[in-house]
Amino acid sequence: MSRKISFRGLLAADSQETIPLHTNNGKTGYRIVKFLGISNTPGDGNTEAILKIYKIPQSTVTATVDFSDPTLVGVNYTAQNASTQITSESIIFDNEIFNQDIYIQHYSRTGGVSANYYIELEQMDLALDEATVATLKDIR
């Protein structure tokens, strides 16, 4: 049986935050269903934000998006110009199931602009072998 849970928050420019998901037995798995982002000052000039979700904490916050990175599970790019036209694109690797904490980071190309995020996860029960595989993938 699965159910949906969500997380939302505000990230300062060039910062990272932990979304706590781990359990003692690791038998609860998660998959990203929806990932959205928007500036905390919509309509206020030109902004560009890159939000990324990783399975392990990152040592730096960068604008680089590398789909070959096995720890990357989702990306959101949002741009807004001075005429308040907003472009937003989310890419989610929905085949990724994880059972540990995830880490969201925000890179602001325009400097100093914070970004809101919304993450919707599908929560599911994992069998012991699935939990072991998910944990080992997260450790890699």
Question: Can you characterise this structure?
Answer:
The protein is mainly beta and 140 residues long. It contains one helix and eight strands, in the order E-E-E-E-E-E-E-E-H. A five-stranded antiparallel sheet has the order 2-7-4-5-6, with no helix packed on it. It has a three-stranded antiparallel sheet with strand order 1-8-3, with no helix packed on it. It is elongated.
Question: What's the short story on this structure?
Answer:
This protein is mostly beta strands and 140 residues long. It is built from 1 helix and 8 strands.
Topology of this protein?
Blueprint: E1 2-11, E2 15-19, E3 28-39, E4 47-54, E5 72-80, E6 86-92, E7 102-108, E8 115-125, H1 128-139
Antiparallel strand pairs: 1-8, 2-7, 3-8, 4-5, 4-7, 5-6
Characterize the largest beta sheet: strand count, sense, and whether it forms a barrel.
5 strands, antiparallel
Q: What is the averaged pLDDT score?
A: 86
Distance between the termini: 28 Å
What overall geometry do the principal axes of the alpha carbons give?
elongated
Q: Determine the structural class based on helices, strands and strand pairing.
A: mainly beta
- Percent strand equals over 45%
Number of helices: 1
List SSEs in N-to-C order.
EEEEEEEEH
